[in-house]
Amino acid sequence: MKIIPVFIPHAGCLYKCVYCDQHRISGAVKIPTACEVKSIIRRNLKTISKDEDVEVGFFGGTFTFLPEALQEQYLNAAYPYNLRMSTHPEAVSLKAMKVFKKKGGRLVELGIQSLDKTVLKKIKRETSVNVINAAAKCIQKTGLKLGVQVMLGLPGDTLEKSIKTAKELIKLKPETARIYPTLVIKGTELAKMRYKPLSLKQAIHQAAKVADIFEAGSVKVIRIGLHPSRDLASKKTVIAGPYHPAFGEMVRSRQMRNKIIGLVKDRYVANRSRIEVYAPRNMFSFVSGHKGDEKKFLEKYFKSPVCLFQTRPPKADGFEIKDARKDIAIIDPRMPKKAKEKLKRLNYYIIEAPLHKKLARPVKGHVDMMLFRHGDRVIYEPELENIANLLRQNGYICIKGENIKSGKYPKDIIYNACAVDDSIIHYKGRIERKIKKLKLRHLPVSQGYAKCSIIPVDKRAIITSDSKIRDIWINRGREGLLVKPGHVKLPGYKTGFIGGASGVNDRVVFFVGNLKHHPDGDKIRDFIRRRGKGVIELYDGSLYDVGTVMILPT
Question: What is the pLDDT of residues 113-163, one digit of tens each?
Fold first, then answer.
């Protein structure tokens, strides 16, 4: 809908508010005649599509305090278009509203500015909340829609007072709101007062907050800031205050920035790759902000690139935020350099486990000695608290487990259990208490290094070098490949385990090393491929037990 504005500067006004000079604000030198109103409408119609709905709005004065004969002339001049007007709450009467409605009136905007008594007194716009409430009810009783106008940064005002005003006005159920920052206009009483206006930065911040409150209350904000004009752009007119010709757009951009911050759960996440904003192309400027300032702020705030993408059907008019994150790979920091580099090239976020002071040197950094995972649930040794915090940010339920108190077997293997589907394969002796209490099918085995010994290919299939583990799994009606033990490097020990030289996600099985160095390499490769997964070898050397490459999707 297009609104054709007709300015009637100060016409009908009983008060002269300290901030007001409607002649300078509107650019209108005098109030128009009825013939001039018709001319204004004709001139504006030339720039409006014939398919567009049109309303004529009378602004800049107190319309219902005009002489009744002049009111009627104006209303007749605007016929046959729908009408809206702005007026003072004290100028609202049932009779005036009925006449306005009969002549095509659709909406009445009340110039409220603030509900704070101190502020209203300072700006010489003294009225009461009761008068405002009565005016709103009167407007709505006649079937007219209600609009409200508020100002920010008035003498004696604060953001808290403005927020309170907006929240109280929402209770009146207005259809629309206009928000204006206070400007110091030459020749006004405000220009002579000891008054410090809001800075542009403060005004944008406050207007965005108040606009968000109105819109959250289902009030449509139809204007933010004065309409730009040659007079307002002149320092001879606005001598102080947050005037900017693009003020409304800057506030909308700030609202968008606030919305994005609200939708993104965590400010900083180590494995975040970028924040993706999907929006119609005509919203790109609101996301970027004036001179790209808001996008730059978001990138600095999140420490991450912000990328804009145009929405496609069926969400062509939608708005969506995606917090794009890299999958996490938790590794022993001593993992072979080439394997680590390949994981990074595969776009994994690498996080290195701490070297646990109680564990034996060869396995000090082995993740499977310190962390157990089943789906989105993780039970971790307290030394891994920083890792747990990152996992929590990525949606994992992380439960702090017991401290490892000894590096001697079997006290060192309390976390070394393997979750496969609804089962846990673990040492038949003592394991970590919280793992033991999990309501899953527990399959106790003689092998203490259960996780080290198993590659959980998928929910039904495992690869292991331990015949007893393979047998117990097959007896459950599942698939298991038994491979020759050994042929896996683990410096400090005679040999490592096949499970410790691997990592698994829902698409592939990773190997730290090349399967060609294992006597059952071809069998392993074929078994995995028959299960519908790929194989990725992270470097060309012998298989190397790093205590599992723990892959956690995000």
Answer: 999 999 999 999 878 999 999 999 999 999 999 999 999 999 999 999 999
Q: Where are the beta strands (DSSP E) in 96-156?
A: 105-113, 145-152
Q: Which domain holds residue 288?
A: 262-325
State pTM to two decimals: 0.86
Per DSSP (E only), the strands in 280-339 are: 306-310, 320-325, 328-331
CA distance 304 to 184: 40
Question: What CATH number does residue 288 fall under?
Answer: 3.30.300
Residues whose CB is less than 8 angstroms from the CB of residue 403 and which lie 6 or more positions away in sequence, other chains included = 381, 382
Structure tokens at 357: 């002071």
In whole angstroms, what is the distance from residue 128 CA to residue 233 CA? 34
Helix (H) or strand (E) holding 536: strand 534-537
Tally of CB atoms within 10 A around 2: 12
Whether 256 is covered by a domain: the verdict is: no
User: Dihedral angle at the C-alpha atoms of 167, 171, 173, 176, nearest 10 degrees?
Assistant: -20
Helix axes 34-45, 68-77, angle to 10 degrees: 30
108 C-beta neighbours (distance < 10 Å), count: 28
Kindly report, residue by residue over 2-29, the tens digit of the pLDDT.
Answer: 999 999 988 888 778 899 876 666 656 6
